[in-house]
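Hey, can you fold this one?
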Amino acid sequence: MPTASSVLTATLFLFNVLIGCHGWTGSVLSRRQAFLASVSTGGAFLSLVTADSSPALAMDTSSVDTVQSSSRLLISTIPSMPYGAPATNSTIVDATLVENIETLASHLERLAQQRDNAISPLLTGNAWRLVYSNAPEIGSLADNLPPGFHLGKTYQPIDTAQGTFENRSPILVGNLAKIVISVVGDVQVAGPGTVNAVQVVNDRNNRVNVYFRGITFTLDEVFGIQKTWLSKTLIPNADKSRAQPANDVTYLDDKMRIIRGGDGSLFVFVLENDANVAPPTRSSTQTEAIAQKDGQTVDVGIGVAEKSQSPELQFLFQSR
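Sure. Predicted structure:
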């Protein structure tokens, strides 16, 4: 079990990686602050705990014959994870439970047969919280962080009127610090008949094109003091040889949203009743202006360390 000192060391290592890269602005921790942190947090931190319960039984969906019952069953089947992190196929230890979740999601999509979700007003909301995904980048963040680092509640605020979104993922370091990874971009209704990376045709008007404009790393809390201690913005290189990044909104109601990524990955969101969740923090134009002044353009990779030019993402996504 990692000690507070080892967690602090790992935190400062990450900060040093970030500080050493072009584009960081803000305050830097002094040696005295680091020493006080190790003294004041003399206990130990728990490493990430995966959801563990009695083994699940394979689910028969033949009796789940309504959209309402299917959606309720899907939400109740997804386990709560430590720190409010999304459950993933790598952090749920019971393979049958993972299979049940993904079977229920597919069953709900088939039952609902929804259309025109890309233009639905239900898409807009600040408190869309990710509760399950099998995407590799989410699994890496949830299950592959250094000891003492934990993924927290992950939100995706969307403003369809402005055409903007934000993926907001906090990395919690015990009670020492919080680092927020924010991916900002634009969304646009995809044209009919477009084909994504896994050759799925947009024949239901459920597809939203996604344009990633910036990734910001912010150290916004240290020892309980909330302010922008450090910040860095990266501009992702657009790979024009690949299919346009897009998400298919395969199910949508006023409480839940199912997304299929361009590679077929599954994302399940619930809309929380939390007025404290902020809207997208800034427009993509503002993000690009910040990056042009203080940031850099890089190949970020997709949740795989060796595919990224960013030291921050290499650190977060490396195998451990």
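Confidence is low (pLDDT under 50) at residues 1-9, 15-52, 298-309. Let me know if you want another pass with a different chain boundary.
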